[in-house]
Amino acid sequence: MARTPILALHLLVALCILSSARTSSSASSDVDGFIGCLSAGIPPSLIHTPAANSYSSLLMSSVRNLRYVLPGTTRPLLIVAATEPAHVQATVVCGRRHSVRIRTRSGGHDYEGLSYASVDPDQHFAVLDLAELRAISIDASRSEAWVGSGATLGELYYAAAAANQTFGFPAGNCPTVGVGGHLSGGGFGALSRKYGLSADNVIDAVVVDAEGRLLNRSTMGKDLFWAIRGGGGESFGVVLSWKVRLVAVPETVTVFSIRRLRNESAVDLITKWQAIAPALPRDLYLRVLVQNQQANFVALFLGRCGGLVDTMRGHFPDLGMTERDCQEMSWVKSTVFFFYNTADRPTEVLLDRRSANYYLKVKSDHVAEPIPRQALEGIWTKWLEQPEAALIMLDPYGGRMGSIPPSATPFPHRHYLYQFQFFSFWFENGTAALERRLSWVRGVYEDLTPFVSKNPRAVYVNYRDLDLGTNELEGNVTSYAKARVWGEKYFKGNFKRLAAVKSMVDPDDFFRNEQSIPPLPAAKG
């Protein structure tokens, strides 16, 4: 898949499929015809209908948010477990021919379940599961890798380090996140202050477009290549694999985790952290996790302990960090530390794709100016002492993040101080628990309104939030005017350009969901 001869072969296959498969404009789904069409090009063992014993287990295999498998949730008509690019092409072509929409999932996380469920009870759709398209090929001589969308971040980290302990990749802190969705939304993590987003380090991709054609960077054109690197998944096509630039990390890095209770100046430290963390040297990433009435300051330093101690004493002496707080390890081991808060587990845990299932609601925000101490104290008193209190994450920007123009990729939020994430998760079922937890996370979000981003209120698209709004149809395509309500929060001024790209590559709006990019309406007059 990553080599030119193989790509050419798949392009020939695509042309053969397309020669006899043009889009039907039928308004209603022809499910039987769709299944028959799939069966002509895909082994029956890979097509899972609700009548099959394998359907439920496959559907649940990468479901993380139990809110979207509750009774009454609209489930897919079937699941195609693709094992090669031709299966993806056939699914897209058959879907268009028989008016069955496709939702694609790469096998990781999905805050609002848009890759496997729908909030519209009348929506007919199939799920295209890419979990088996997870091959990773490292070119150590060029510091590059081809990564299947179905791979997880943990699998990528493990493979890069196995090739060379000084290879890393800037992406998220959760190893069970799927590569496909993560890179499609931009991809932020502990190396982003040093090397930018994941999307900033994508140098090629293989995409199946709305016509079923297999494209790479040279054949898809610069506009589509721009859009897929941060414009959110499931709007422009199906990205099968990504060619990424691996980045240099030292053989030894240093981490620490320092907890401070409220009566140990936690609020004062967070207040100061807001201005300090984004201005720290690029080799240092210092985040804060607020949970269980304490603030946990967690750091990754691309160097040895002595250098970290000197840096912290010079920039943030109030935290009281000393050599005793240091843990030196390889970079790949640090990815284990960041997720499990311990380095005692073997790096092989990065290959474990399993993740806990729970009920979840997340909201996010960005901060342009430090929030006053009094406001932070008020938030802590009002919200963090409640029984429903969950987790608040504060991730610093700055460094390389701020030196890349906001229009370089669809991700526009590069010049903020830091990013907020309000992460509420719970295990008890029932309406009462749901309402309490939703009330908590929405309440924190509402009370922070005066102190966070404005016009529009900025949200990271990988933290999907259906509270921002959902799409409506205008004729047979998504309304651009309605989509702007949520779209400009994710993409700011880049939203209009994304819609223009959509008009070029998918004008009939085949790839759509509750928050997919709409086509840009033609200019009047």
UniProtKB/TrEMBL annotation:
Cofactor(s) this protein requires: FAD
Domain FAD-binding PCMH-type intervals: 72-249
Listed SUPFAM superfamilies: FAD-binding/transporter-associated domain-like
Database matches in Gene3D superfamilies: 3.30.465.10, 3.40.462.20, Uridine Diphospho-n-acetylenolpyruvylglucosamine Reductase, domain 2
Keyword annotations: FAD, Flavoprotein, Glycoprotein, Signal
One Pfam family here: BBE
Signal peptide, first to last residue: 1-23
Molecular function terms, GO-annotated: FAD binding; oxidoreductase activity
InterPro entries with a match to the protein in the record: BBE (IPR012951), FAD-bd_PCMH (IPR016166), FAD-bd_PCMH-like_sf (IPR036318), FAD-bd_PCMH_sub1 (IPR016167), FAD-bd_PCMH_sub2 (IPR016169), Oxid_FAD_bind_N (IPR006094)
Family: Belongs to the oxygen-dependent FAD-linked oxidoreductase family.
Protein's name according to its UniProt entry: FAD-binding PCMH-type domain-containing protein
Species the sequence originates in: Panicum hallii var. hallii
